[in-house]
Amino acid sequence: MTSLGVRRIKGYLMLILVAVAFIIIMIPLISMLYMIIKEGIGILSWEFLTALPKPPGEAGGGIGNAIQGSLMMVALASMISIPISIFAAMYISEYGGKLSTITEFIAEVLSGTPSIIAGIFIYTLIVLRIGFSALAGALALSVLMIPTVTIASYESLKAVPRSIREAAIALGVPKWRASLFVILRSAMVGIGTGVILGVARIFGETAPLLFTALGNMYWNEGLLEPTAALPLLIYNYATSPYKSWQTQAWGAALVLLVIVLLLNIGVRIIARKR
Amino acid sequence: MSTKIRIKSLNGWFGEKQVLKDINLDIEENSITAIIGPSGCGKTTLIRCINRMHEVTPGARVEGSVLLDEQDIYKEDPVKVRERIGMVFQRPNPFPTMSVLENAVAGLKLKGIRNRKLLAEKAEEVIKAVGLWDEVKNELNKPGTSLSGGQQQRLCIARALAVEPEVLLMDEPASALDPVSTMRLEDLIYELKKEYTIVIVTHNMQQAARVSDYTAFLYMGELIEYSNTKELFERPKNDLTERYISGRFG
Ligand SMILES: Nc1ncnc2c1ncn2[C@@H]1O[C@H](COP(=O)(O)OP(=O)(O)O)[C@@H](O)[C@H]1O
Ligand SMILES: [Mg+2]
């Protein structure tokens, strides 16, 4: 009887703890969303999304070049990272051996690398030779994206049941064909999820772009030119003394948030197909 | 009748653990050979040695030889060997990313055959051969995994047949099925022996007695007794066999 009472009290206590934890998590999330939407929504317009910035003090102007730069660098980083990551993951999961253990270890260490280090690395290796550029920015983003996508892909490949691999091999299918057409295909949902999360992450990265892409007040006209990017613009505008720029920083933050949100919704949709 | 498969001094290991000990076994062409024995005695391992699937497991190792039409499969390309010796697993394992139709001809597709007409014809042929056509002809584009367990297992047999093997290895193919599906599967296996040499693992002795022509009794990695099924069940020579088939252990 008493032990039942004690258990019931413990149950209530647990419930309260969980509720408190939930509220503690929700408060900053909700207030952040609220603030960004409240401050940013007013400025949104077609011009804001497509026009070049105007000098501080002048009315109007937009973040078109930052959106262009971000899309360009993220696309390029994805084109570099996705194939490399998938092949690395397949190598680790399908071919085993010492070298693959080392590859896995490296991917894990790299995925924990602070993003500013990716920036310095590319700055030293690339920027000092070819200058600030969209290419250098994309490479810095790739340094961050490759390990995360590799690990996500590896986890999904590992999750493909043994019985599926064996079914293919027992049909007299060569191993490389089985890996490519059965195992990779079975893991595609998980890999797709990993890719989108990787993309969402690099969209928001600022530090690695600071001394690679640098920023630009105009449109980007080539991979070897410095380029604007959303997180860079937010950083520069928010810390500027001009009211109009600060407002635009909120607007840009809202745009970035919506992009990341859409990518996360994309993940949900893919994951449901499982 | 002639010998299709000749297993000679076969030994199998998982790491340091020896699970098959000096197996010698001749398998007749166009017959059904059952392998029986208590759980863990090495039945699965033995048939996996016959199409070189055993060595796919990390740490697994084989010694000895398996002759297919008098040629040692361990001296040939394992991929070619597995084309000639098909396998059906204990749990139905259709490819989850493929439709019923694609599953049936997965072996051909995965080897790079693209001709749609040829694939569709072959799929129909093998799905009919396993008696599944009438049940699934309107569901050919659904995922293979959406079928019932018994249907999935017959689909897996169809998939194995599409590669046109000479031998079919089956590892307790009915163990995950209900009694009705099991009966249908046994009928099918009996049909298939006209064209294929079949080796079937089962821990169900009634099943072995019902479908097989020859029976091998395996115990702790050793082949204890091997003979004509009727004889083995009616007049077992070995005391262990006698105790096993009368249900006194295992
Ligand atoms: N992947 C594996 N790794 C290590 N030991 C295994 C593995 N698979 C099976 N074994 C062992 O090998 C022996 C034979 O197994 P198996 O051939 O599956 O027996 P059966 O099919 O007759 O039940 C058992 O003792 C089992 O524990
Ligand atoms: Mg078994």
Task: Please supply descriptive tags for the structure shown above.
heterodimer, A: 274 residues, mainly alpha, MetI-like fold, 2 domains, 11 helices, 78% helix, globular, B: 250 residues, alpha/beta, 6-stranded mixed beta sheet, 4-stranded antiparallel beta sheet, 27% strand, binds adenosine-5'-diphosphate, binds magnesium ion
Question: Can you describe what's shown?
Answer:
The complex is a heterodimer of chains A (274) and B (250). Chain A is 78% helix and 0% strand. By secondary structure, chain A is mainly alpha-helical. Chain A has two domains: 3-43; 48-273, Orthogonal Bundle (MetI-like fold), CATH 1.10.3720. In chain A, helix 6 (134-158) crosses helix 8. The relative contact order of chain B is 0.18. In chain B, the strands form two sheets. Chain B has a six-stranded mixed β-sheet with strand order 6-7-8-3-9-10, sandwiched between helices. Chain B has a four-stranded antiparallel β-sheet with strand order 2-1-4-5, covered by helices on one side. Helix content of chain B is 36%, strand content 27%. Bound molecules: adenosine-5'-diphosphate and magnesium ion. The site of magnesium ion has 2 residues of chain B, from helix 1.
Topology:
The complex is a heterodimer of chains A (274) and B (250).
Chain A: H1 2-40, H2 46-50, H3 64-95, H4 97-111, H5 115-130, H6 134-158, H7 162-170, H8 175-203, H9 207-210, H10 230-238, H11 243-272
Chain B: E1 3-14, E2 17-28, E3 32-36, H1 43-50, E4 60-68, E5 71-72, H2 78-84, E6 85-88, H3 100-104, H4 106-110, H5 116-129, H6 133-136, H7 149-162, E7 167-171, H8 179-192, E8 197-201, H9 205-211, E9 214-219, E10 222-228, H10 229-234, H11 239-245
Parallel strand pairs in B: 3-8, 3-9, 6-7, 7-8
Antiparallel strand pairs in B: 1-2, 1-4, 4-5, 9-10
The complex binds adenosine-5'-diphosphate (ADP) and magnesium ion (MG).
Residues 43-44 of chain B line the site of magnesium ion.
What is the string of helix and strand elements of chain B? EEEHEEHEHHHHHEHEHEEHH
Largest sheet of chain B: 6 strands, mixed
What is the fold-level CATH name, i.e. the topology of the largest domain in chain A?
Answer: MetI-like fold
Give the overall form of chain B: globular
Q: Major sheet of chain A: size, sense and barrel closure?
A: none
